Amino acid sequence: MKIKSLSVSKGDFNLQDYNQMYGSFDWTEVEKEFSWFETGKVNVAYEAIDRHADSFRKNKVALYYQDASRNEKYTFKEMKERSNQVANVLKEIGVEKGDRVFIFMPRSPELYFAALGTIKVGAIVGPLFEAFMQAAVKDRLEDSGAKVLITTPDLLQRVPFEELPRLQHIFLVGENIQEEGIYLDFNRRIQQAGKKFDIEWVDRQDGLILHYTSGSTGKPKGVLHVHNAMLQHYQTAKWVLDLKEDDIYWCTADPGWVTGTSYGIFGPWLMGASNVIIGGRFSPESWYQAIEDYGVTVWYSAPTAFRMLMSAGDELIKRYDLSTLRHMASVGEPLNPEVVHWGIKVFNNRIHDTWWMTETGAQLICNYPCMEIKPGSMGKPLPGIVAAIVDNNGDVLPPYRMGNLAIRKGWPSMMSEIWNNHEKYESCFLKDEWYVSGDSAYMDEDGYFWFQGRVDDVIMTSGERVGPFEVESKLVEHTAVAEAGVIGKPDPVRGEIIKAFIALREGYTASDELIEEIRQFVKKGLAAHAAPREIEFRDKLPKTRSGKIMRRVLKAWELNLPVGDLSTMED
Ligand code: WT7
What we know:
Layout: H1 15-21, H2 28-31, H3 36-39, H4 44-53, E1 61-66, E2 71-75, H5 76-92, E3 100-104, H6 109-120, E4 124-128, H7 134-144, E5 148-151, E6 169-172, E7 183-185, H8 186-192, E8 207-213, E9 221-226, H9 230-239, E10 248-251, H10 258-270, E11 274-278, H11 284-294, E12 298-301, H12 303-311, H13 314-317, E13 327-330, H14 337-347, E14 351-355, E15 365-366, E16 380-381, E17 387-390, E18 403-408, E19 417-418, H15 422-426, E20 429-430, E21 434-443, E22 449-454, E23 459-461, E24 464-466, H16 468-477, E25 481-491, E26 495-504, H17 512-525, E27 534-537, H18 551-559
Parallel strand pairs: 1-11, 3-4, 3-5, 5-6, 6-7, 10-11, 10-12, 12-13, 13-14, 26-27
Antiparallel strand pairs: 1-2, 8-9, 9-19, 14-15, 15-16, 17-18, 18-21, 20-21, 21-22, 23-24, 25-26
5'-O-[(S)-butoxy(hydroxy)phosphoryl]adenosine is lined by residues 213, 258-259, 331-334, 353-358, 378, 437-439, 451, 454, 546, 548.
């Protein structure tokens, strides 16, 4: 393996800048970098693609695409033309500003042309993850009142269009499509469409994208983001992802989830970066190969992926040239300190944790290239963002007190609405000042935030407060443990006891000795009260696509309760 010698990636954004702007950054400064500051004409697709296509970046590769059967690349100029063709086709069938156009298909270049084309006509994109089954697809199309769906012949059987009276057109992306009734041939139509399009300029507060996400109760909710979010997509791609002109950037997330759009479409292209998209399934070999093939320099992925790579072993890494990697970042769930140490060991690179969520639209609390990392901490708020730990009344708590992680409302990429559910939207705020994330955390004396769990996951055992993440992190440090999920199990004496579900690494088998060894390992490494009293081995743990262990599913297993909505679960 070739690796570069730098152990810390150094951004242009330095600590002094950070400290100066902390809490006081004025987002108008970012607006000035875009023509809409003067013209008042806004459209993210223009800023992400056309602006570069009309500049020195015209022939720069915007999209490198690869899966088992395709290997293609598109320049900014080509992206502009393809998305214009989609926009023309959509306009022709009557799609207007504010209409919802849903895209339900596996990753492919067409998916990206479709998303950008939708934005160019001023419509709202609704990305649907390809693994959704019929009920999940129906809920989302129904709730959003989607007018158009872009999908593939394979996925069509999961679209109950006769139960969706507001759905007027279905584009099929594939070969030999027969146009009939509401079905239209996507590829043929875009090939025949004009390559020029007059972009629909919108207001910065107009709808851009609608992501459905599950809460702890009820049906998934549609989180709406507006064009104004681009200010933060752009600025975080600069400060946090550290993107520069020559970077080859790879975000591993699917655009069915917010990471795959905010940082798989908007952030990198607003920066004019070359964006690598790899379709198909995960394997450690294919991922390392992708980094080598494209010479990836900046890599944004998730703890679950890093842990899978970690358990594939360090020998494997030696077969690839990963020397181009200069900056790595992570999102979706707590990044175990163990993984950070592994990153330094095998890539000679720090993995920078970033915290945000579907509702926040973009990164908010992060580790920056210029900053010291405290492994296990999510980092510090973005300049211009005020984060705090508040109690249930919305009063700010002092350092080290655990409470609700909250953000002062009004950042550029904050969700603008929950579709069809304004009441739910309002309920996310306290005192009309704080957006309450649903995560519990504390802040240390240096202003670093430490994730403790979702508010409802914290375990109380014999009067001791235990965050499941701490226990899980400790568990995965044990050589036999690949994945761990920890829950509180009701107990008549202790209130709750800690129960761990564990997936073992290859080559290890479950035994009473191993259980005892793991218990002792946590007892010794963390705290006696934090050691799981019960351990159960499973082949696989339930996880969301963004990689979070679904503790509520573990809890349901344990208590024999219904598991609830599983639409966000990894297949
Ligand atoms: C929840 C949001 C935003 C991209 C993917 C997830 C958890 C997210 C971290 C982190 C600990 C994290 C939180 C949050 N989460 N990032 N760096 N450390 N937890 O988006 O599906 O909307 O989930 O993911 O619990 O509330 P999402």
